[in-house]
Specification:
Layout: E1 7-14, E2 20-24, H1 27-36, E3 41-48
Antiparallel strand pairs: 1-2, 1-3
């Protein structure tokens, strides 16, 4: 397991109200924000520690020693052996017969020359 790497950031806080004004990723940005009002602002260094990282390895295949196959006809003898499903040659997708296909909408035809705008 790798060590934690902290991500440092800076809070710029208003001294009079105690409210955070902003968060900065670099020291220079925090110092610049304090320089705008040095009497009422201060910055503090904060460290963000990410949570624990756990490596998980997923097996490439499912274990096959726990599969149970019922070869006695399934529930109530509903299983039947079929060599093939048939010789269907139609499309794989057919529209629903109750739904009408909408006509494709397009822009009106126009033979006017293009307009060039110049500023």
């Amino acid at each position: 397991m790798r060590k934690y790497q902290s991500q440092d950031y800076y809070d710029v806080v208003d001294k009079t109200t105690g409210k955070r004004i902003c968060q900065c990723g670099t020291l220079e940005d925090a110092q610049m924000m304090v320089a705008f009002d040095p009497k009422n602002r201060v910055y503090t260094l904060n460290q963000f520690l990410p949570g624990q990282c756990i490596d998980i390895q997923i097996p490439k295949e499912l274990p096959t020693n726990e599969i149970v196959v019922n070869m006695d006809g399934g529930v109530g003898g509903s299983w039947k052996e079929v060599e093939h499903a048939g010789d269907y040659q139609g499309p794989l997708y057919a529209p629903h017969p109750e739904l009408e296909a909408e006509k494709q909408k397009s822009l009106p035809e126009n033979n006017d020359p293009p307009i060039h705008f110049r500023v």
